[in-house]
C-alpha cells in the first residue's frame, strides 16, 4: 500500500524557504504543501496564495497543527533551536536549513534532545551530499579504487554579498560551513583543527570585511583540506573541488570541459560554459534530490541525509574557524562524545 501524501509545512519563506515551498508544491512527489509561516506575514500570505496553501502566523502553531506531518525549517539560524525542539516534542520530522544553530551549546542541546528521544527526526540541509557529483566522488572513494583520500581542495565563490550588516565571520558560518560538511562527507571523518588566513582583501568587500579567506582543516585521520571562500568574486557562483587520493584525483563542479578562465570583462563569468548565478541554480538538482529523498524517507518512517550530529559538528568547526579568523592561529575542535543514535549502523 502506498503511504498517504506527506503534508509538509515551511517555516521561513525568505529566499531558501520560498525555493523549498515551490519545490514542495510543484516538484516533489508524494507531498502536499500544508502551510507556510514567516514573521513577514504579507510575504507569507502572498506566497500561500500563489501556491494554494494556508498561512500560520505562529511557526510553533504550524508545527503543532494536526494538518502538518513534517516541517522544512528555513528561518534564520538563531530561531532554529526553538523550532527544532518543537518538532522533536511533537515527534515531527524536520528538514532544517544550515546552520543547525548559531553556537555549539545550542546545537548540542538538539543532539541530546534527539538522542533522548531515541529516534532520528532531524535532517540538516547540507544539500551538497545529494549533488550527483559529490555523491559520485564519495562512492568512488568508498570503492577503494583510488586508495586513501589525502588532500581535498575546495573552492567556494559567490558573486557578491550585501555590504550592509555583513561581517567577516559570516563567511565562516554561512559559506565555509558547507565545505566543513563536504569535507566530513568525503573523508568520512571529523575535522580536528582549523586555521583561517586571509590575503589583503578585495576592494569589492565592505569596509573591514576580510574576503577572500583561506581555511585549512586537519582531518582526524591526518588528511588535509584547503578551502578558498571568496564571497565578492564579481563573477558568479563557483563551487568545485579536487580530491587527491593515493592513486589519482577526482575533480567535481567544473560543469564543462575546457580551460578555466572566468573573468568579468569577458562578459560575465564564462569558461566553455556559463558560471551559474547562485546556489539555487548550481545546486537545483541537489535540492530537488535532497527534498525528495527526505520526503520519501519520512513517508516510510526512516531518515536520510546529514543528521543533527553532522549539524553540531559543522557548527563546532565554524566556531573554531571564527576564533582562528581573528588570530590566524590553528584552533582545535573538541567535540562532545557522539551518542550511539548517530552510529552508522544504529
Ligand atoms: C548561503 O547561505 C548558502 O548557503 C550558499 O550555499 C553558500 O554558497 C553561500 O555562500 C551562503 O551565503
CATH architecture title of the largest domain: 3-Layer(aba) Sandwich
Give the cofactors and ligands: (2R,3S,4s,5R,6S)-2,3,4,5,6-pentahydroxycyclohexanone
Instruction: Describe the strand arrangement of the main beta sheet, using strand numbers.
Output: 11-10-6-9-8-7-12
Q: CA-to-CA gap between the ends?
A: 27 Å
Task: Please identify which CATH superfamily of the largest domain we are dealing with.
Answer: NAD(P)-binding Rossmann-like Domain
- Describe the global form: globular
CATH class of the largest domain: Alpha Beta
Q: Please, how many domains?
A: 2
- Give the DSSP E fraction (strand runs of 2 or more residues): 15-25%
Give me the count of strands: 12
Radius of gyration: 20 Å
Structural class: alpha/beta
Share of helix, binned:
25-40%
Instruction: Give the number of helices.
Output: 10
Low-confidence stretches: 257-263
Oligomeric state of the chains present here: single chain
The run of helices and strands is EHEHHEHEHEHEHEEEEEHHHE
For the residues shown, what is the average pLDDT? 93
CATH topology of the largest domain: Rossmann fold
What summary fits the major beta sheet?
7 strands, mixed
SSE map:
Layout: E1 6-11, H1 15-26, E2 31-37, H2 41-51, H3 59-64, E3 70-73, H4 80-90, E4 93-96, H5 104-117, E5 122-124, H6 132-143, E6 149-157, H7 168-187, E7 191-197, E8 213-219, E9 224-230, E10 238-245, E11 248-252, H8 279-282, H9 284-299, H10 308-327, E12 331-332
Parallel strand pairs: 1-2, 1-3, 3-4, 4-5, 6-9
Antiparallel strand pairs: 6-10, 7-8, 7-12, 8-9, 10-11
Helix pairs in contact: 4-5, 5-10, 6-7, 7-10
